Amino acid sequence: MDTETLAGQQAAPREAAARKVFVKTYGCQMNVYDSQRMADALAADGYVATDAPEDADLVLLNTCHIREKAAEKVYSELGRIRDMRELRARAGRETLIGVTGCVAQAEGQEILRRAPAVDLVVGPQTYHRLPEVVRKARAGEKVVETDYAIEDKFEHLPAPRTTAVRSRGVTAFLTVQEGCDKFCTFCVVPYTRGSEVSRPVAQIVAEAERLAAAGVREVTLLGQNVNAWHGEGAANGVKTRQWGLGELLFRLAEIPGIARLRYTTSHPRDMDDALIAAHRDLPALMPYLHLPIQSGSDRILKAMNRRHTAADYLRLIDRIRAARPDIAMSGDFIVGFPGESDADFEATMEIVREVGYAQAFSFKYSPRPGTPAAENALQVAEAVKDERLQRLQALLSEQQAAFAQSLVGRRIGLLIEKPGRHPGQMVGRSPWLQPVIVDEKAGGIGDIVEVRITRAPANTLFAEPV
Ligand code: SAH
Ligand code: SF4
Ligand code: F3S
Q1: What is the distance, to the nearest Å, from the Cα of residue 239 to the centroid of all Cα atoms in its chain?
Q2: Disulfide engineering: 246 pairs with which of 17, 232, 278, 462, CB 3.0-4.6 Å?
Q3: Which residues lie across from 370 on neighbouring strands?
Q4: Which residue of 67, 102, 187 sits with most ligand 3 atoms within 8 Å of its CB, as the best mutation to test the pocket?
Q5: How many domains would you assign to the chain?
Q6: Is ligand 2 within 6 A of the CB of residue 225?
Q7: Chain Cα centroid distance, residue 292
Q8: Coil, helix or strand for 362?
Q9: Range of the domain at 443
Q10: pLDDT tens digits along 10-43
Q11: SS3 of residue 158 by DSSP
């Protein structure tokens, strides 16, 4: 997955005295969101974000544990940062090194053993204590803070800073739910992010209002199981019955300035009627749904503990498409789960053909410590996984290109996000999340303009104003 840094997204006051923090983000969108919240929390202590690690007094790696490769990358990066710290030390400058995110949670103290240069380790449920941890580390203490939420971190984290939000652009992430109780047998998330917790409605609305006031037009609600979100609703100050994500989306759409809403990632078992109805009745909700199935084989789905069949998934998609015919489907797939036969893999290819995905992510199964599937004796050979992944990805790319091509000639609403790579161009996103390039005369950043798609080479669309 992509890694990115935070600077450039944050207007940095140019004070010589300011301490600098470099945050490198691995993994999912929730880590991107968390990195921003951590930078905001540290800003109160005078830390300014930088995208030059060699300038940073504090380097944070916000890590991902989902597959072995993702987790191992962290240790090679720590080696590079240690070398950089030595160079800085020769110039008389100190550097603190911190590991946050899911590797921090999964490995804790072990990180200090493998990488003694690390000064602090902070898990995702304890980010509100980061400023205090950094103060202790600056005083020379090695700190590991991975104790499970004793208090609600969101109540203690400072709100997103207006200047930072403005510099990050017109789209924003907002975590509404964190953790997972599903325990798919391949997955570390229930161990690294803890059990499922939903943020209260009032907290979410307040944060969304703040984002809107800072110019955000599109909000993507995040959760490991975002559609399992639930909370106490409120009308005219009176508490109402429990809301699901559908009701929350309607509430957020009322906020002036918020024009577009998205949510990710959903589990098929938690797609309720109200949420499906929102796709029909709420114009602000974009017609795009990331709904992972992982495998098309019922035998493998059972071994994965997904608790639904391929037929259940297809029926669900029929209902969603009945509500919103132009919805684009996205998914995640794992090939080479223990015991996966040729026939099981063919069932995955078949479900992909039946659904027709606009976008998808596919991975080779990676055994993860502490998960049941890692203990399974029927591990699939690497070469078999490679071959299956190639075939699956070829099919998925074909579908993605066909979907993009099907949009040529169509009029769409385009949210303009930033200048394009070439002078005179602007880039935005289609309702289906594809990047769209348009002439700058079409409108300015934050405008939603009517355009017609003219061509669709690969997954980037070109459009002209109408
Ligand atoms: N519900 C989560 C899923 C997180 S993991 C969410 O909010 O996104 C994202 C994807 O990584 C999963 O859907 C799965 O396809 C893949 N994945 C998880 N564990 C994996 C493993 N051990 N090996 C390979 N891929 C894995
Ligand atoms: Fe992992 Fe499954 Fe939970 Fe998704 S639903 S986070 S894949 S355990
Ligand atoms: Fe990775 Fe943790 Fe996200 S393991 S995918 S960073 S929830």
Answers
A1: 31
A2: 278
A3: none
A4: 102
A5: 3
A6: yes
A7: 14
A8: strand
A9: 411-465
A10: 444 444 468 999 999 999 999 999 999 999 999 9
A11: coil
